[in-house]
Amino acid sequence: MIIREAKETDLPTIIDIYNAAVPTRKATADLKPISLESRREWFKKHDPEQYPIWVIALEGR
User: Fold this and answer.
1) Is 8 in a helix, a strand, or coil?
2) Residue of 21, 43, 48 whose CA lies nearest to 33
3) Tens of pLDDT, residues 18-48
């Protein structure tokens, strides 16, 4: 297991994981799945020094 800062190439997987939680509404208040384009700017605005986004990679995924 490797914990690292997220790269923009991780964004589609991050969105997939997030959208999997949308129907249950237990982890998000969104009622509909979000799109990749709607989160691209959000991702770019995160400063790793102040607001890091971390990912866990298992077996290269």
Assistant:
1) helix
2) 21
3) 999 999 878 888 899 999 999 999 999 888 8
